[in-house]
Design a protein that fits this description.
Blueprint (H helix, E strand, L loop, with lengths): L2 H16 L3 H14 L4 H13 L3 H14 L8
Length: 77
């Protein structure tokens, strides 16, 4: 595991979502999770990217994993 490298991928994936490049975002979140499979926010953010891409079942799977890892992910802001 290389947490700084995983964070770098996850940090780059988030702006891709906002730029309408969800496929690139998913690729970066996948890379982050290969390095650190315990990265809750990578699952959460990949779920958002899948949702944007209308891949709802994949989004739900990622949201469920994120909530199982850290129930606070589901807390309202």
């Amino acid at each position: 595991m290389d947490p700084p490298l995983a964070n770098s991928y996850a940090n780059r994936g988030t702006p891709y979502r906002y730029l309408g490049k969800s496929r690139l975002a998913v690729n970066d979140f996948d890379s982050a999770l290969l390095i650190n499979p315990n990265m809750t926010l990578a699952y959460h953010n990949r779920g958002i990217a899948y949702f944007i891409m209308d891949l709802y079942l994949m989004a739900i799977d990622d949201f469920n994993v994120a909530m199982d890892m850290s129930p606070l992910v589901a807390e309202p802001y």
